Each structure stands twice: as structure tokens, then as C-alpha cells.
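> forwarded from #structure-qc
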């Protein structure tokens, strides 16, 4: 199996929205983004699948060393061997790849965040950083596109947090800021023991509005000249936003079941988004 085939297997097996967003990319970009996604999966799996935090830290330290070696053109893992051409072609910053590992390492501690500012650092490292790396692979001309990627990463991660509240609680993780729990009079024990209430639904609606704000800000920040290049990110935004809408329509019953869009729905959203953006581009060209 080649490094590219290994990464493709990682991406295809997960059914992630990330995968559906880059199906239509040219081959070089598709290989680059698939390798980036596989790298995210590898370091995330270290945390999720390793029961001993000390062993997980050793493995993450190995990945930090591996990234350093990759930037010296000496990768040894199939993922970094596949990622190396993208690092060269798209000038991916080493610091961002290392910051992503830092974010994953934050999950080796019990996930508790006093404030939204504290949670924002985590979201930046595990999601906005990925968005910025992805933006580099997709291509951009305007520096503001990186701000778009940062805000979209926040929106996507907040959507993940809302979707996965119950699943995370069963791992003793709470990604809802303590200040918000206190404001809505929901205790950590309520989350950990799956106790739903009107107060919980109000808390989750508040979190959803925060995510909506980041979706709107991301859209406002994307320069028109970079919309075409950033189409995969726009597809991702639409898929995640649709998932958030489904969670809202279900009444935020997130402690006992997880709402995820089926693959065909994701493909449909991806197709609709690409068609909409093509129409938008034609209108802009016609009006020029």
C-alpha cells in the first residue's frame, strides 16, 4: 500500500464530512488534503484509543519529532510521507502542525473549561488550525481568507461539541464552559449523568447561537476572489450547518443520542453547494 493509498483508506473509512468536502478537488490538492486529514486522524486516535495518558504523551511526542523530521525531508510514517509533497507545494507551516498536536494533548486532561475564552484556545488548536492548513492547500489570494478559516473552524468545532455532548460525557469530558453551566443552572453532574431538563435545552440553544455567530462571521470574512478556491470549506460549512439545524429541530436532546447526517445527505449538500457557487460565479462574471 502506498502512502497516498493509506491516507485515502483513513479518509474513506471514517465517513467524515471532511471527506465529502474535497471529492471534486484536482488530484494534487486532493492528495494533500487527504494526507492532512489522515494526520489529524492519527494524532486524534492517539488520544481517543490510548487508555494510559503517559503512553499517549509519548506517542504524541513521537509525532512531534516525526513532524520535525518531515520538515527535514526525512519522514518515516506513511502519513507524513504523503503529506511531504503538500508541505512543499503549499508552504504549510510546521508551527501549525505542531499546534494541532498541542490541541490533541489538551484532551489528555479531564476536559473542563472555566470560560469560553479557555475553550476557544482548544477549539483554535484542534479546528481553526486545521482550517488554516486546509485554506493553504485550497489556495487563497487574500490574507483575510485565513480569518475566514479561523472563524469557520470555531463554528465547526462548536457544532461538534453540541452534537457530541452525551458521547463526550461518557468519556468524562465536558466541553461546555463552566460559566455557561452556572448561568443556565445546569451542573456538571447533570451532564455526566444524562439528566435532561429545560435548563439544559436552553443552555444548548445558547451554544448553538454562538456557533451560528461564527458561521455568519466566517461567511462575511471570505473575500469574493477566494470563494471558488475555498469551495471545499464552503461545502464543509453547509454540511455542519445542516447538522446543527437537525440538532435544533430535535430539541437539543443531545445527552442520549447523537444526530449525524447520512452519507447521501452529505453528498446532496455538497452537490447543491457546488451548484450554488457555480451560479454565483456566473452572475459575477456576467455583471463584470
Amino acid at each position: 500500500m502506498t502512502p497516498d493509498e493509506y491516507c485515502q483508506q483513513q479518509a474513506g473509512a471514517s465517513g467524515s464530512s471532511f471527506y465529502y468536502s474535497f471529492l471534486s478537488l484536482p488530484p494534487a490538492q486532493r492528495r494533500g488534503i487527504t494526507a492532512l486529514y489522515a494526520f489529524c486522524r492519527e494524532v486524534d486516535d492517539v488520544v481517543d484509543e490510548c487508555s494510559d495518558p503517559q503512553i499517549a504523551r509519548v506517542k504524541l511526542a513521537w509525532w512531534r519529532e516525526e513532524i520535525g523530521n518531515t520538515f527535514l525531508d526525512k519522514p518515516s510514517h506513511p502519513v507524513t510521507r504523503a503529506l511531504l509533497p503538500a508541505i512543499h507545494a503549499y508552504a504549510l507551516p510546521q508551527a501549525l502542525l505542531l499546534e494541532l498536536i498541542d490541541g490533541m494533548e489538551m484532551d489528555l486532561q479531564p476536559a473542563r473549561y472555566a470560560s469560553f475564552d479557555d475553550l476557544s484556545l482548544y477549539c483554535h488548536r484542534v479546528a481553526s488550525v486545521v482550517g488554516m492548513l486546509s485554506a493553504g492547500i485550497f489556495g487563497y489570494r487574500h490574507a483575510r481568507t485565513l480569518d475566514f478559516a479561523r472563524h469557520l473552524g470555531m463554528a465547526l468545532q462548536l457544532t461538534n461539541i453540541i452534537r457530541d455532548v452525551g458521547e463526550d460525557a461518557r468519556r468524562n469530558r465536558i466541553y461546555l464552559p463552566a460559566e455557561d453551566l452556572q448561568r443556565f443552572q445546569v451542573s456538571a453532574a447533570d451532564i455526566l449523568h444524562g439528566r435532561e431538563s429545560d435548563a439544559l435545552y436552553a443552555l444548548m440553544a445558547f451554544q448553538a447561537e454562538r456557533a451560528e455567530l461564527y458561521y455568519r462571521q466566517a461567511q462575511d470574512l471570505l473575500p469574493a476572489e477566494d470563494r471558488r478556491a475555498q469551495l471545499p470549506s464552503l461545502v464543509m460549512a453547509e454540511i455542519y450547518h445542516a447538522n446543527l439545524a437537525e440538532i435544533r429541530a430535535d430539541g437539543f436532546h443531545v445527552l442520549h443520542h447523537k444526530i449525524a447526517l447520512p452519507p447521501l445527505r452529505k453528498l446532496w449538500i455538497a452537490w447543491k453547494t457546488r451548484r450554488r457557487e457555480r451560479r454565483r460565479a456566473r452572475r459575477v462574471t456576467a455583471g463584470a
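QC bot note: The first helix runs from residue 3 to 14. Residues 109 and 250 are 31 Å apart (CA to CA).
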